[in-house]
# Entry
Amino acid sequence: MKQSTLLKVASQSILKNKLRTLLTMLGIVIGVGAVIVMVAIGNGAQMMIQTQIKSLGTNLIIVMPGSGVMGGANQGAGSFNRVTVDDAAELKRDGTLLTAVSPVVSTRTQVIGGQGNWRTSVNGVSTDFLTIRDWSTSSGAFFTDVDVRSGRKIAVLGATVASNLFPGGDPVGSEIRIGHVPFTVIGVLTAKGQNAGGMDQDDVILMPYTTAQNRLSGNIRLGQILASTASQNDIPAAQEEIKGIMRESHRLNGADDDFTVRNQTDIAQAATGTTKVMTALLAAIASISLVVGGIGIMNIMLVSVTERTREIGIRMAIGARGSDVLTQFLVESVVMSLLGGLVGLAVGYGGAALLGHITGWTTATPPSAVAIAVGFSAAVGVFFGFYPARKAAGLNPIQALRYE
# Structure
């Protein structure tokens, strides 16, 4: 039998019972739609996490204090701090793979100015900080190397701090009091929003690290050193270079590292790995409805074989082979599955868009998910349609003609 004839006969059979066909396709529609929505949500979550992690900085590497042992008990990360500004200076001078290095002096204190007061984080950094964090100012300017060397009492406000101290106004040129020390505001940072951990990156004040050490913290030790590379591919080699410079600076010789080196790629891989597992789990759960839809197709096709027994007998009596009957019923099953899959795609795209609009979540459907969903729906049609088709092809023509 010609392929065009097979498709014509299959289409006529499907259109003959429109309601039954629609009900048969419903399971496939729901299954494919659910898979598309779940994958869109999971993929959107991965994209959002990657965007948030990128906002931490460009090819960011973090050097932190190491762990210490007291009374035979390890006190954990950051308990033994030997990280100083001199270490940052040596990394800046000797690091061949590092494009920018900034010490970070951190404290948290009350800030008074403008029309209110606000408790926030204060970070003393160098001029490389904006390059490392891929940040800029929305008004005013950032401080210079001259400001750092002279330890000027100047500050750059994060967007959250600026909006709370100077609601509706531009704070550049105004005076604020950080702790008990007066500072002049020279700039406001561009808003970055929350990071991957849910913390507000704009709730911060930046100043020269020399000023933070001398006027606020009084601590010569650093909470961390930030560095960046020109390319993400340079990060592993740059981390090894940092370890070598730090070990030499601290004269460790054969001793263990008294510092820790981390990068944002580790964080990104852990976070996206978790969302990938959740996406796969949700898609697997949603695909169960595809199997249920396939069982529905098989049941309807078995009913169809029973109803059309005499028709099958007539076809075989006038020369149709068993393979022709098998192919005819398989085509009917696959066409219903594919139609259901295409309708399910439309439902899935619409459902994902509606859910994103209502909840504000980011949704994104990768082309691979579309191809897999449609391919799987066709496979369901072949798998669950084969038994009824084989049963139809195996009918005895004489018995089929006698069937009432």
Observations:
- Residues 264-307 form the longest helix (44 residues).
- DSSP finds 13 helices and twelve strands in the chain.
- The longest strand covers residues 98-113.
- The chain has a mean pLDDT of 79.
